[in-house]
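Weekly sync notes, structure subgroup
Attendees: PM, AL, DS (notes)

Item 1: joint prediction request from the bench team. They want all two components modeled as one assembly rather than separately. Inputs as received:
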Amino acid sequence: MTVEEKVKKTDEIKGEADSKYEEEPRIGVFVCHCGHNIADTVDVAKVAEYAKNLPNVVKAEHYMFMCSKPGVQMVKDSIEELGVNRTVVASCSKNQHGRTFANAISEMGLNKHRHQQVNIREYNSWVHKKEKAKATYKATRLVEAGVNRARKLEDVETRRVATTKAALVIGAGIAGLRSAHDLAELGIPVYLIEKLSTIGGHMTQLNKTFPTLECPQCSISPLTNGVANHPLVELYTNAQVKSVEGSMGNFEVEVEIKPRYVKDNCTSCGECAAHCPVEVSSEWDSGMAVRKAIYKAYPQAIPATYIRDKKNCIECNTCINVCPVQAIDFSMQKETKTFKVGSIVVAVGYDEYNPTEIEPYHYGQEGYEDVITQLKLERMLAPGSLTNSQLLRPSDAKIPKSVVIIQCVGSRNDQVGNVYCTGVCCKFAVKNARIVKEMYPDSDVTICYIDIRTPGLNFEELYKSAQEVGVRFIRGRPSEIIRDPVSGNLEVIVEDTLSMTPLQLKADMVVLSAAMVPPEGIGPLGSKLHVLRSKEGFLKEFHIKMNPTLSSKGGIFLAGAIQGPKDISESVAQAGNAAALAAAPLVKGYIEREMLVPSVDFDLCVRCGLCKTVCAPAAIEINDDGTPMVNEIACKSCGMCMPACPTGAIQLINFSDEQLLDEIIAISGGGVICEDEL
Amino acid sequence: MSETKEEHREYKTDEDFDRAFFKDIERKTNIWQCIQCGTCTASCESGRWTALKTRSIIRKVCLGDLTVLKDPDIWLCTTCYNCYERCPRDVRPTDVIMELRNYATKLGNISPNHRAVVGYLQKFGHAVPINDEVRKRRVELGLEELPPTAFKFKQEGDDKDLKKFEEHLFDLPPVEDKEEKKEKKEEK
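Output from the run, pasted for the record:
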């Protein structure tokens, strides 16, 4: 757009603005009793009478329930009979019934945005029950303000925007896989990207899943295989989001894919790993096993292609020489791909809390090797582990005679900043305690807990079954784990609060039920996606009850533990919901958007760019010439750009300075009558 | 008592508990599934007026805390079965308390009042023996002076089987003499 064109556009806007008010406003005012809610405090008849005398008001009525069918009909009739072209309903909040009346006038052919809702219930009668005269006065002020605002309301158009029929799923754990699968089944091409070299996430690391003690590998493999082989799913492992542009319906995502150094013709024969001389601790096994510098995380890993760990590789080239299909190529480079998608599902899961922070438990310290976390216990008991699925003390490889499980490590703890209850730890602790007790009936298994929280079907039963096999439950949070400096034995100090007995329990092994925390790197990812995070660090949902799957940004959905701690069933349920919501605009092919967006007066704009810095949903871009450009789809109509603008060049439709000023004048008493007269 | 409590301020260790001791009770009741909700204590008619806290007694048994056998509170239960009826996990607290009393009695920890009642039973064949007042009223009402029980058939009580039954039933620690008690107190 050239400067001339911009000035021309500005003139057009101004011209439109002038012509908008040419049509004489005819305003209908309706005051609601809301049963006793308003009428007991506010003299509604007086308010309606007052409204009658305001300029441009052609009808002012009061009625018992405006939201009832006859009430809504009154509004409709006024449009037909008296030619009312703007309506003001003084009743409850805009959230409660604003839409009811907006829809009603739109049925009569008026633009929805010509309705002005005035809240005289929550803002007035409910809070001023004892000051009836003052409440009535306040109601008149609010109604007059509403009338002033209604006088200058403009029509807002609704625009259709075509969507890109493709979706991006970030994270290939159980939630991401479920979402990707469901989206693909709806006929939507899916790009599935995963940070690690294999898909399946935390679920594949587990030994058994509660409450049925099923084998997680068996449960998840149909899904991992199904997604990996789905014709509509493009899977990228070792990949991370680099940048995200665009908004709901049309995103452009740049993804960086790190090299595996092993080509896809790898037959997964394992010769390379067998000959590799470097052994390092395996991350996938939570350090409970070793792997080579060229490796496959676990036997069933998908993709089955091996991967070279460049950091630890000594470049001896042995693997290159032994590979029978010449699949290994050290010269592979990272590549960047750009995907155009309509919706994004974020399913990046969680990390296990690192308990080193809790000093009295000495996790990870020398001499305290037998203090482990639940994930390590899972890896130890899982099939094919280093201990051959036996429970052995890391310090001396002996079967522990007493195992103490400590709950709420990193959960329900203000000191470490996690106020929340993870809600899953009780379930897996009870499950693991039972498994250990059944494996070693002669060993003592104790769970130290603050509260046992096992809600839902089958979970109290699981708790009971652990009690039945003889797991000891001590209600109390251990204060510390102490170590005898001579024998090296560990002891847990805890009070049995139920009998008020301080205890010192022998513990050959201590298992910490560590919390679920937001995954590493969620901060940068969150800012790339322009979505808000909760104070705990998880990605924030749109509404905790009514829409826990949508993020703070339209078109970006949350699945699984990234929205908050969840177990597998909950993650799967939310992932399915995320897929359905993400698919809806893509299947329909377009989204409808009310153009309640700011417009820019290019004559006034000083090209400072402040509006861009305050725009939370990143809907404002700066053109090459320094002027702002509003993305009408991404805009959330929050109005933050308006006060930021030093010259008032950016104005949100129906929230312009002029309109708000009229409203303020009425509220602050610029009207006809004063308090004394009432 | 208070002095010994002071001495025991230290942490208790696994050696202070005998989890195997109450295996018998575990088998007869469902004590393993207790969740310490406190319905028993809240339902307890006796506990409303006395020190009996059923939940804490159950907790001690779960832990294997043998001090519960010396606890005088287990004798305060009236066996009204309120807790038994209301327990959400079917722990059968009343049965637990009765079993505890059996153990305690074997260890010589029977409560003096209960022991006295057994004494009456042994002596008179009645838990509540007949007294002069009752005898008088019986005559007034036109009944025999003595009811047709061990009072009346004293001689027939020499039966061998009854003797044997007596021996087993009354194989209890002797009743503490009131004078002995006094002496003990004075010694202290």
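Discussion: The domain at 259-333 of chain A is CATH 3.30.70 (Alpha-Beta Plaits).
Action: AL to compare against the crosslinking data before next sync.
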